[in-house]
Write a structure and sequence with these properties.
The protein has 4 helices and 9 strands; from the N terminus they run H-H-E-E-H-E-E-E-H-E-E-E-E. The protein has 152 residues and is of the alpha+beta class.
Length: 152
């Protein structure tokens, strides 16, 4: 009994490295700048400026299709993930939305979303992904719907 309590305490402070940690989530780092996720666009900062949602709507109307065609598709295995999203240079609160691509996938696949990501802050969004086609974006700092594929 005493060893069990010590193991539980060690897990709580991150000192235990046994099988429980093997089930930890994989962290995916994403950085938002005005109208884009940097990693999704191969690390290229497009240099956009935005003070409001409408700025990105205009920018994406002109450049979104081309950028999305050149964007990196995230290929992941089924499992637990944490999407760690940082607001790098956007002067208004942002969000993150990961969901199935299309109506059928949106209905059958898990999704995660949230807002309140202020300038310079980072938030984490935990999800267990199943096989399928997904998209992710920010509806508050409108970005293209970047692709994410989950397969074994």
């Amino acid at each position: 009994m005493k060893k069990s309590l010590i193991a539980i305490a060690a897990i709580g402070v991150g000192l235990y490295s046994g099988p429980v940690l093997a089930q930890k989530a994989t962290v995916i780092e994403l950085t938002q700048t005005p109208c884009q996720f940097l990693e999704s666009e191969n690390g290229v900062d497009q240099g956009f400026t935005s003070t409001k949602k409408a700025d990105c709507d205009s920018i994406n109307a002109k450049t979104g299709s081309k950028r999305l065609g050149e964007a990196k598709v995230l290929d992941l295995k089924p499992g637990k993930y944490i999407f760690r999203v940082t607001n790098k240079n956007v002067p208004y609160p942002l969000g993150f939305w990961l969901r199935g691509d299309g109506l059928i996938n949106r209905a059958r696949l898990p999704s995660v979303s949230g807002g309140g990501l202020t300038l310079g802050s980072t938030q984490e969004y935990a999800i267990t992904l199943k096989e399928g086609e997904y998209v992710y974006s920010c509806p508050l700092n409108p970005t293209p719907n970047y692709k994410l594929t989950v397969r074994k």
